[in-house]
């Protein structure tokens, strides 16, 4: 596996993008809205992975709830695998809990999440890109 992206929840996306661009020296940013999850995402490309800044688009968004209870900060780390089905089966066999089944993510990816309680407080996304 390799780190595909690190996702950070922010109150104000435009402000956060400016600050991260300045800090990391990044010029280009891509934006994406995932209406099913209620988030707007800014993607900052690094050499071999990405940082995704996320802002809620509505009050019922799980990200809104995250902000209200935990505030801004790290939301999840995404690990890419070539075989998400195989990995999920292997990991479930170790007694580790998942949040939901494998489902479509953005840009033709397949994703699922490992429960943070199973990994010492960090939400881990598994993803695989379309071949
Ligand atoms: Co993610």
Number of domain modules:
1
CATH superfamily (homologous) name: 2,3-Dihydroxybiphenyl 1,2-Dioxygenase, domain 1
In total, the number of strands is 8
- Give the mean pLDDT: 94
Number of helices, counting only DSSP H or I runs of 4 residues or more: 3
- Report the β-strand fraction as a percent range: 35-45%
For the termini, the CA-CA separation is 16 Å
CATH fold-level topology: 2,3-Dihydroxybiphenyl 1,2-Dioxygenase, domain 1
**Fraction of residues in helix:** 10-25%
Name the ligand types.
cobalt (II) ion
Structure characterization notes:
By secondary structure, the protein is of the alpha+beta class. It has a single domain, classed as 2,3-Dihydroxybiphenyl 1,2-Dioxygenase, domain 1 (Roll). The protein contains three helices and eight strands; from the N terminus they run βαβββαβαβββ. The chain has an eight-stranded mixed sheet. The mean pLDDT is 94. Bound molecules: cobalt (II) ion. Cobalt (II) ion (CO) binds at residues 5, 7, 52, 76, 78, 125. Cobalt (II) ion binds at residues 5, 7, 52, 76, 78, 125.
What are its keywords?
131 residues, alpha+beta, 2,3-Dihydroxybiphenyl 1,2-Dioxygenase, domain 1, eight-stranded mixed beta sheet, 3 helices, 23% helix, binds cobalt (II) ion
């Amino acid at each position: 596996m390799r780190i595909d992206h690190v996702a950070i929840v922010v109150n104000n996306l435009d402000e956060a993008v400016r600050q991260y661009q300045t800090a990391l020296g990044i010029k280009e940013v891509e934006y994406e809205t995932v209406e099913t999850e209620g988030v707007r995402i800014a993607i900052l490309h690094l050499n071999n992975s990405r940082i995704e800044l996320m802002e809620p688009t509505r009050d019922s968004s799980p990200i809104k709830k995250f902000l209200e209870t935990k505030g801004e900060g790290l939301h999840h780390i995404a690990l890419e695998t070539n075989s998400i089905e195989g990995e999920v089966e292997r990991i479930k066999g170790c007694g580790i809990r998942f949040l939901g089944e494998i489902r479509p993510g953005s840009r033709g990816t397949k994703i699922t999440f490992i429960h943070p309680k199973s990994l010492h407080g960090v939400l881990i996304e598994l993803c695989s890109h379309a071949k």
